[in-house]
Amino acid sequence: MNLDNDFVRAQFPAFAEPSLRGQAFFENAGGSYTCAPVIARLERYYRSRKVQPYGPYEASRLAGEEMDEARQRLAAMMGVATDEVSFGPSTTQNTYVLAQAFRQWMRPGEAIVVTDQDHEANSGPWRRLADEGIEIREWKIDPGTGLLDPADLDALLDEKVRLVCFPHCSNVVGAVNPVVEITALAHAAGAFVCVDGVSYAPHGLPEVGRMGPDIYLFSAYKTYGPHQGIMVIRRDLGRMLPNQAHHFNGDTLYKRFTPAGPDHAQVAACAGIADYIDALAAHHGIAGDPAVRNAGVHEAMRAHETTLLQPLLDHVRGRNRVRLIGPSDATARAPTVALALDRPGAEAAADLAAHGIMAGGGDFYAQRPLNAMGVDMDKGVLRLSFVHYTSRAEVDKLLTALDDIL
């Protein structure tokens, strides 16, 4: 199925914004543009629902219903139960809270597996548990390719491992990890699985129920929504871990790992993400239940991205003084492309800005994988990242600009 890029872009007010005219956005891994349904819901909430939700009066009832709608619809699209979806201020914060729950639940001498491919959010909070007597085992990437080998994980697993944490997709390597295979390995060893989906979810809302991890985390502000962290915690594990919220909220699964009340307006606005996915499904003739519609949209997004990504990879691969981080095959990765240059990535990003290209340079909180691959941390990388609303014309503009600055 060919994604109708014109229809897609019409759903994002940023593309009609005069101040952004003539600029191509290639820093989507840091946060995507917000779709119109999310903006509309957020504005409506602040205009007419900005009261304490779940009360007996009309504005309060509607406020609570919109919050519930966001949870229900996103859960249905991901193939999980409604109460298995929680909201928090950010994925970093959500992971930290989960780490505290595991700290209380685990015994000294038991182990957690982390990787050196992760953004720090799904690595640092778990590593800190070493101070509590928890053994931290590191699943290391190949320093040449940046890839994780499931066989290396298998060698780390034994009866002491309680949790395996890894990214669905690294925010600098870009490779898509085989979540189903890795989850099966961990479960066979008796361990739970936590997947950081922050860098993958913008390229298609994950089918968490089908893939099988016990925890899946991603950020709404990278999936066309407001600045909230979204986390799926499967019911069996969520009930097993100690409550991290107010004691009177301990019996409600989606509140157990939210110590403070969530941002009501932003939670309600997250239903706009579901509105957007449904609008794409209807426009492209994708029918079925919410999970089927989401899967069809996911496939169309990835197909469009892959088509645009391969020319970029081909363009930078083999250039003198340019190292492409991660796979050169577009089907094996997300369109998050990090380039190690012979000068600071931030300088290259500044040069691109003069050509109307919005990109980023630095380490992107991914110091561990970049260090493991021998990247000069004083220079970092130039990162070029896009999503399904990116057009072929914008990619062509990027390629021309790269010719000028490289």
How does this model look, in words?
- By secondary structure, the protein is of the alpha/beta class.
- Helices cover 40% and strands 14% of the residues.
- The strands form three sheets. It has a seven-stranded mixed beta sheet with strand order 2-8-7-6-5-3-4, sandwiched between helices.
- The radius of gyration is 21 Å and the shape is globular.
- The two termini are 35 Å apart.
Give a short summary of the structure.
Keywords: Aminotransferase, Pyridoxal phosphate, Transferase. The protein has 406 residues and is an alpha/beta fold.
Q: What would CATH call the homologous superfamily of the largest domain?
A: Type I PLP-dependent aspartate aminotransferase-like (Major domain)
Mean pLDDT: 97
Largest sheet: 7 strands, mixed
Classify the helix fraction into a percent range: 25-40%
Entry keywords:
4-stranded antiparallel β-sheet, 7-stranded mixed β-sheet, 406 residues, 13 strands, Aspartate Aminotransferase, domain 2, Aspartate Aminotransferase, domain 1, single chain, alpha/beta, 15 helices
Task: Show the helix and strand layout.
Elements: H1 5-10, E1 24-25, H2 36-48, H3 58-78, E2 85-88, H4 91-105, E3 111-115, H5 124-127, E4 135-139, H6 150-156, E5 161-167, H7 179-188, E6 192-196, H8 208-211, E7 215-219, E8 229-233, H9 235-240, H10 264-269, H11 271-283, H12 290-316, E9 323-324, E10 336-340, H13 345-353, E11 357-358, E12 360-362, H14 367-372, E13 381-385, H15 392-405
Parallel strand pairs: 1-11, 3-4, 3-5, 5-6, 6-7
Antiparallel strand pairs: 2-8, 7-8, 9-10, 10-13, 12-13
